[in-house]
Design goal:
The protein is of the alpha+beta class and 316 residues long. It folds into 2 domains: 2-35 and 111-200 and 285-311, 2-Layer Sandwich (D-Amino Acid Oxidase, Chain A, domain 2), CATH 3.30.9; 54-105 and 202-278, FAD/NAD(P)-binding domain (3-Layer(bba) Sandwich), CATH 3.50.50.60. The protein is built from 10 helices and 14 strands. It has helices spanning 35-48, 92-97, 100-103, 156-161, 166-172, 178-186, 229-248, 254-282, 286-296, 300-311; strands spanning 8-15, 21-31, 59-65, 68-73, 77-80, 84-85, 112-120, 127-133, 136-142, 148-155, 188-189, 195-200, 208-209, 212-214. The strands form 3 sheets. Strands 1, 2, 7, 8, 9, 10, 11 and 12 form an 8-stranded mixed sheet that branches. A 3-stranded antiparallel sheet has the order 3-4-5. A 3-stranded mixed sheet has the order 6-14-13. Strand 1 (8-15) and strand 2 form a beta hairpin. The longest helix has 29 residues, at 254-282. The chain is globular and about 60 Å long. The two termini are 16 Å apart.
């Protein structure tokens, strides 16, 4: 990581739709890096250790029977003793298995859309900014190569109200926040189109499904306003890897593996996800967001406590 010279993130700036601002030093801090760079590096390390990686391969189903898994893909089939699922927020496997969160009717926790850009904009490298607008918020953080990640979350209803046009919604809704207006006016976008995802759900999820250990967003999705999903994914993988080693060495049974993983995951993340859902609901309306930003500004100790409740007290 040192060789990448990544930006060190030390400060949070939070703005309300009307432009009121709260700034706060982050107790833990972090660094900015894109999934593209990090995933490629991790894949390279895995290959160095003789791990087979199949790209452009779609998993169609995972079937557990007689203490082994058959992983069925559009190219090959794999049989294994242990399987973990890191397939993100919402996948074809979730739908095939009819995981409860994927079957819920649209409600306040499960009908969000996400839009992501990489861009070059004037931005302080040590600051992560969260700019709110009606029923949504936009995060801006520095990543490698003097680029920024711009990512916002809003409701499907917001997009529908603007004719399902992302540019129109950005111009007429997001830009009501003066900070977002400046960002979208001055940004040099590096993609022709943004990356988008729909039907994002913050409903509770099971950490083990059909004996598959779920990692990252597949196990539970924290609201972006309140947490670092990449860090949580790495943390859950660390928990699972240690237990997987014990299982493969025949030190623990499958039932014990699954039980301990659930317990460790709940201890590490359940409280943070619960707090995140509450805070996101509070920041979903313009008047409450304006009130909270102004009200919290004189009380840095309370802001610090909220951050610790959602981000954890120490790095894993």
């Amino acid at each position: 990581l040192d060789a990448w010279h990544l930006p060190k993130i030390k400060k949070l700036t939070l703005s309300a739709p009307g432009g009121s601002v709260l700034s706060h030093e982050l107790p833990l801090g972090g660094f900015g890096v894109s999934r593209y760079l990090l995933d490629d590096a991790l894949a390279g390390l895995a290959r160095q250790h003789q791990v087979d990686i199949y790209t452009n391969t779609r998993v169609k189903d995972i079937v557990f029977s007689n203490e082994h898994f058959d992983i069925l893909t559009d190219k090959i089939n794999v049989r294994t003793n242990l399987c973990m699922g890191a397939f993100g927020k919402r996948s074809n496997i979730d739908l095939k298995w009819k995981r409860p969160f994927s079957q819920q009717k649209a409600n306040a926790l499960n009908n969000f859309i996400g839009v992501k850009y990489h861009a070059r904009i004037p931005h302080e490298q040590h600051v992560i900014a969260l700019h709110n607008f009606r029923n949504g918020y936009c995060g801006i953080s520095s990543i490698e190569d003097d680029k920024c990640c711009i990512c916002y979350l809003t409701t499907a209803e917001n997009l529908k109200a603007y004719g399902n046009s992302i540019p129109k919604m950005e111009k007429e809704l997001l830009s009501k926040n003066p900070y977002l207006q400046e960002i979208f006016t001055s940004a040099k976008f590096l993609y022709e189109k943004p990356l988008t995802i729909s039907q994002i759900s913050f409903e509770k999820k099971e950490q083990v499904e059909n004996h598959v250990l779920m990692l990252g967003d597949a196990a539970g999705l924290i609201t972006p306003l309140c947490g670092n999903g990449m860090s949580m994914a790495l943390h859950s993988s660390k928990l699972a890897a240690a237990l997987a080693d014990r299982f493969l060495q025949k030190e623990i049974s499958r039932n014990t593996l699954e039980l301990i993983y659930r317990q460790q995951w709940q201890t590490s993340f359940a409280g943070r996800l619960f707090t995140g859902r509450i805070i996101q609901a509070a920041f979903g309306k313009e008047w409450t967001t304006n009130l909270l930003v102004r009200g919290l500004r004189p009380f840095p100790s309370i802001v610090n406590k909220i951050i610790m409740q959602t981000h954890g007290e120490q790095p894993f």
